[in-house]
C-alpha cells in the first residue's frame, strides 16, 4: 500500500501538484548559470534573463489566447486575485456594486470583504446542490452600478466547473468586468479569454505542475479594456501593477508548465477520468450511501469529493495517513480543519457537508494506486462504521 521508501501515495493534487520534471529541467539553468536581473538590460546577463521572462510571458499568454502585453507576472494566484479585484474596483469607484459567489477561494473572497469595508456593496450568489453557479442568477444580480463580477473557473473542493463563458458573455453585454480565478482549470484545458468574454483572469503555477510562489494575471487590453489601479508600489515592474524583481526561474517554470499542459491536458484528463470512474464504481458498489459531491459530469478529472454516512473524515485520514495523503478540507488558509464555506453553501450545516473528504489524483498517479486506495477505503469505512455503531 505504500509507495516504497518514498512513503504514502500522494492523492492531494487539488491542494498542490508535484513539479513536472520537464518544468524542473527548464527552470534549472536560471538557478545556476543565467542568474541575471531581467531589469538590468544594459548587459548580457540581464538580457538573457529578460529573454527568458519574455518567452515565459508568451507561453502564459498562449495558454489563454491572450496577448503578451496582457500578462502581469505575480508571486501567486492569490496575489493576482488581489490585484485584479482591488485594482479593478478602485479604478471605477463610481461603480459601487460587486458580485461574487459563496464558493470562492479566500484569495477572492477576502479582497471583496476589504472592498465592503471601503464602502462597496457586495452581492454573494449561492449555488445549486452541485456547487454550480446559475448564469441567470448572475444576470439578475447585475445593476447599473455593478463594476465587477468574479466567478472561479473550477472549484478546488468539489471539482465543479463553472459556466464562465456564459457568465462572461452576460457581463460583457451589460458593461461589467468579469474576473475568474483559473487556478484549478489551467491543467485541464486551454482557456480562450476572448471567446469566453473574460476581462481579468488569475493563474497559478503550483496547481498546474509548476512551482509554488508564482502566478500571473491577465488584464484585457482590447475593448472592453480592463483598467486596474495599482495596489502595490515600487520600481514599476509589470506595468507598475506588481513591482519587484521578477523571479526568473519561477516565471520560466510557470510558462513551461502551462505549455506542457496545453499539449498534455486532453490525454491526462482521459486517463484520470477512467481512473476515477473505476474508483467510484468500487466505492459505490461496496459502501452503502456514499455520495459524490460536485457536478456529476461538469467537473475536473482530478477531483473526487465524497461523503460517507457514519464516517468522519478526520478518523478516516488518521487511519489511512500512513498509506495515502488526501484531504478532509481545503488546505488554503490555516491548519484548522472545519466545515468549509463551499460545502455549507451546497448542503447547509448537514452531515453530508461535515463528512466530506477529497481525493485528488493527478498526472503522476498510477491506476494501481487508485485501486489500492479504493479497496482500503472500503475496508476502513466498514471498520469505522462498526466502531461508531
UniProtKB/TrEMBL annotation:
Gene3D superfamilies, sorted: Aspartate Aminotransferase, domain 1, Type I PLP-dependent aspartate aminotransferase-like (Major domain)
Cofactor(s) the protein needs: pyridoxal 5'-phosphate
Keywords from the UniProt entry: Aminotransferase, Iron, Iron-sulfur, Metal-binding, Nitrogen fixation, Pyridoxal phosphate, Transferase
Record domain Aminotransferase class V: where: 9-370
GO MF annotation, one: cysteine desulfurase activity
UniProt key word Thylakoid: no
Taxonomic superkingdom: Bacteria
E.C. designation(s): 2.8.1.7
Reactions catalysed, as given in the entry: (sulfur carrier)-H + L-cysteine = (sulfur carrier)-SH + L-alanine
Purpose of the protein: Catalyzes the removal of elemental sulfur atoms from cysteine to produce alanine. Seems to participate in the biosynthesis of the nitrogenase metalloclusters by providing the inorganic sulfur required for the Fe-S core formation.
Family: Belongs to the class-V pyridoxal-phosphate-dependent aminotransferase family. NifS/IscS subfamily.
Protein known as: Cysteine desulfurase
Organism: Sphingomonas ginsenosidivorax
Amino acid at each position: 500500500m505504500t509507495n516504497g521508501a518514498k512513503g504514502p501515495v500522494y492523492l492531494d493534487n487539488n491542494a498542490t501538484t508535484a513539479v513536472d520534471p520537464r518544468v524542473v529541467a527548464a527552470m534549472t539553468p536560471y538557478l545556476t548559470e543565467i542568474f541575471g536581473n531581467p531589469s538590468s538590460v544594459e548587459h548580457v546577463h540581464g538580457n538573457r534573463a529578460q529573454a527568458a521572462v519574455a518567452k515565459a510571458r508568451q507561453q502564459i499568454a498562449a495558454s489563454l489566447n491572450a496577448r503578451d502585453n496582457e500578462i502581469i507576472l505575480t508571486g501567486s494566484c492569490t496575489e493576482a486575485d488581489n490585484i485584479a479585484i482591488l485594482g479593478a474596483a478602485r479604478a471605477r469607484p463610481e461603480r459601487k456594486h460587486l458580485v461574487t459567489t459563496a464558493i470562492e477561494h479566500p484569495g477572492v473572497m477576502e479582497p471583496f470583504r476589504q472592498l465592503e469595508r471601503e464602502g462597496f456593496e457586495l452581492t454573494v450568489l449561492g449555488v445549486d446542490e452541485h456547487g454550480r453557479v446559475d448564469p441567470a442568477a448572475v444576470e439578475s444580480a447585475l445593476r447599473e452600478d455593478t463594476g465587477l463580477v468574479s466567478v472561479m473557473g473550477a472549484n478546488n473542493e468539489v471539482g465543479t466547473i463553472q459556466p464562465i463563458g456564459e457568465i462572461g458573455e452576460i457581463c460583457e453585454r451589460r458593461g461589467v468586468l468579469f474576473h475568474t480565478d483559473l487556478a484549478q482549470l489551467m491543467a485541464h484545458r486551454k482557456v480562450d479569454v476572448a471567446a469566453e468574454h473574460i476581462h481579468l483572469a488569475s493563474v497559478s503555477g503550483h496547481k498546474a505542475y509548476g512551482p509554488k510562489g508564482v502566478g500571473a494575471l491577465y488584464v484585457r487590453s482590447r475593448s472592453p479594456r480592463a483598467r486596474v489601479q495599482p495596489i502595490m508600489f515600487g520600481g514599476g515592474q509589470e506595468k507598475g501593477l506588481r513591482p519587484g524583481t521578477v523571479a526568473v526561474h519561477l516565471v520560466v517554470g510557470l510558462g513551461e508548465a502551462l505549455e506542457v499542459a496545453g499539449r498534455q491536458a486532453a490525454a491526462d484528463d482521459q486517463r484520470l477520468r477512467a481512473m476515477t470512474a473505476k474508483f467510484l464504481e468500487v466505492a459505490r458498489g461496496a459502501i452503502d450511501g456514499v455520495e459524490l459531491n460536485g457536478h456529476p459530469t461538469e467537473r475536473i478529472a482530478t477531483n473526487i469529493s465524497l461523503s460517507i454516512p457514519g464516517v468522519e473524515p478526520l478518523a478516516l485520514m488518521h487511519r489511512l495517513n500512513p498509506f495515502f495523503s488526501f484531504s478532509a478540507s481545503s488546505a488554503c488558509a490555516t491548519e484548522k480543519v472545519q466545515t468549509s464555506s463551499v460545502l455549507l453553501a451546497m448542503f447547509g450545516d448537514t452531515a453530508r457537508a461535515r463528512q466530506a473528504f477529497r481525493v485528488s489524483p493527478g498526472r503522476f498517479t498510477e491506476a494501481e494506486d487508485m485501486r489500492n486506495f479504493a479497496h482500503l477505503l472500503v475496508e476502513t469505512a466498514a471498520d469505522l462504521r462498526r466502531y461508531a455503531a
